Amino acid sequence: MRGLELSCRHGRRENELLKAVKSGDLETVEALLEASPSLSERSTGYGRQSVLHLAAIHGHVEVLSTLLNRSLNSDSLNRHKQTPLMVAAMHGKISCINKLLEAGANVLMFDSLKGMTCLHYAAYYGHSHCLQAILMSAQSSPVSASWGYVRFVNVRDGRGATPLHLAARRGHDRCLRILVDNGSLVCAATARYGYPGSSPLHLAAQAGSLDCIRELLAWGADRLQRDSSGRIPYIVALKYKHGACAALLNPASAEPLVWPSPLKLISDLNQDAKALLERALKDANKEREKSILKDIAQSLPSPPPRDSDLGVSDDISEASENDLCCICFERLCSIEVRDCSHRMCARCILSLCCHNKPNPTGSRISPPICPFCRSSISGLSVAKVRVSEEHDDDIIDISSCSTKSRKSCEASSSFKGLLVMGSFPMGDQTSSGDEWMEKP
Ligand SMILES: [Zn+2]
Ligand SMILES: [Zn+2]
Question: Which CATH architecture has domain 260-277+321-356+368-440?
Answer without folding.
Answer: 2-Layer Sandwich (3.30)
